[in-house]
# Entry
Amino acid sequence: MYDRLKKILPIVLIVIVAVFSVLYFFIGRRYGVEYQDALYFLNSEGGATVYSAKVDGQSASFTVEGNTVTYHWGDTVYGPYTVREDPTAAPGGEWESLDLIGVEIREEDSILFRGGYTEDLFLFIREDGEPDSDLFHVTYSVNGVEHDADGNVVDPHRPSLSTLIRFSQLPQADAHRGNSLMWFLGLFLAGIAALLIKFDDTLFRLHLSFRVKYPEDAEPSDWEIFSRIFSWIAFTLLSLGLFIAGVVIIS
# Structure
């Protein structure tokens, strides 16, 4: 087993590094818009701008046409929402120093929000000067289903006010998968694994040279052989894990 692993693992390491290097190259060139841990890719369809992704196993998309935003997740349609800037909607008084941007958001004929928001989309203040309640809502989970403080089921796919404003502003594709730091760390650990395999006896005797007089005459014990195999496999799996994590992470 020892000799077999010593021949097989270097080949496995080469394949891992080669496959993920090619994968990183291609996915790193594909930019999209990040939203809820998914990457939405930009397309134009019949005069509308469409951001599409795969979310929870379903096709998802934001369709933006003029000041109208519609979100599709699977067969469920949210909207259409109308997002219209209106300087007269921004509250004054104590909120005036925040330079709130006035906006009115409608879902069909129903007004969802009318008021102002900060440029970073963090704070929403209604026209009457009250903070929007959706920003401070408390939820709890029962069997994997989110509920609000009143016990109502919370739809995790319904877009928030900040999301509607963000996509109505046609955000640029500036994010991609393929984290370069994870790639370098994966490559580094793969290199360590290769060195441990290639110079197993050399490293063993180098370590003994500080402890015994004639390390060149020593023979590795069963425990030493087991430790070597364990370290080879551990570094190989750690390298693979980092490469995979880097593919998943959005940068």
Summary: Residues 222-248 form the longest helix (27 residues). The first strand starts at residue 33 and ends at 35.
